[in-house]
Amino acid sequence: MGRRGVTDAVRGGALLVVGDVITDVVARHRGPLAPGTDTAAAIRTVPGGAGANVACWAARRDGTEVRLLGRVGEDAAAWHERELAACGVRPLLVVDGQAPTGTVICLVDGGAAAERTFLTDSGASLRLGPGDWSDALLDGVARLHLSGYLLFTEPSRALVAVASRAARARGVPVSLDPASRGFLVRLGADRFLSLVEDVDVLLPSRDEACLLTGASDAADAAARLSLRVPLVVAKQGAEGALLARSGEVYARVPAVPAAPRDTTGAGDAFTGAFLAALLAGAGPEQATREGCRAGAQAVEHIGGRPPAPA
User: Fold this and answer.
1) Which element (helix H / strand E) includes 175?
2) For the chain, which residues make up each domain, given as ranges?
3) Class in CATH terms, 14-299
C-alpha cells in the first residue's frame, strides 16, 4: 500500500497516542546548583510523560477524541488515570505489577530561559510491549502518534513495529516525535532512522534534527530528513518551526512571544496541538501555527500538561 497524504484521515476519527506516562517532580531553582549542600527550590509533583502530555494537549481542542496507551506501576495508576481523564483523554493504561511508574526529576533554571535538565527513571513506561497491543485499538482511529521514547528499549521497539504495521494496513497515518536528544545519542542516528521508515510525519526539535543528520543548520537538517519521511516539522522553540518535504524547506512559521517559566513539555504541547489541528482538517502550515501557540502557552506555566481552565 502506498503512503497516503499526511493530512488524509478519517474525518471524525480519534487520535491514538502510544507512549510514556510519567510522574514529574519539578524543581525550579535560581542560580547554579550548589554541590554538596542545599539549593533552595520550589518543588511540585505533577503528571507528565511525553506521550501523555501530547495526548492532553491534543484533547484540549474541542471535539477531538484522544486515546492513550501507556504502562504504569500500581503505585500511581489511579492518579494518572484521573489526571488524564480530567484533561479529556481516554486512558488505556496497562498496570505493571513488577515495575513502578516512571519518574523524572526536572531541574528547571529559574532564569529568563527557564531551561531544564532531566533525571529519568523510565520505570514501567518502557516495558510497554507487543503483548499490550491489539489491532482493535485502531478501531475508529484516524491518526496514530508514537512517542520516540518507545524506541529506546527492545520491548517498546517491537511494539512500535507492530503498531506501525497495523496502522499502515488500515491506511492510518503515523507520526513520531524523537523525544530525547540524550537517548538518541545512545541509540544512534542510523538505527533511529531505520526504525521510523514507515512514519508519515516526524516532529524533531532543532537539536534532534541536527543530530540525526549531522547537519549544523536546522533548515538543512529538516530538508535532509524529509528525503526519508514525507513531512518533517522541525520545532525550534523561540524561533518557531520549519516544514520540509521532498528535500526542501517549504514553510517557516514564527514563534508566538512568551515569557518562559518552565520549558518542560513545550515540544509536547506543540505536537499535541499540531495533531489535533490536522484531525480537524487543517493543513500542515495552519497546524504548525497552532502548535506554536500551544508551545508558547506551555512555557508560561509549570509542568508539561495544559493549564487548568480558569
Assistant:
1) strand 174-177
2) 14-299
3) alpha beta
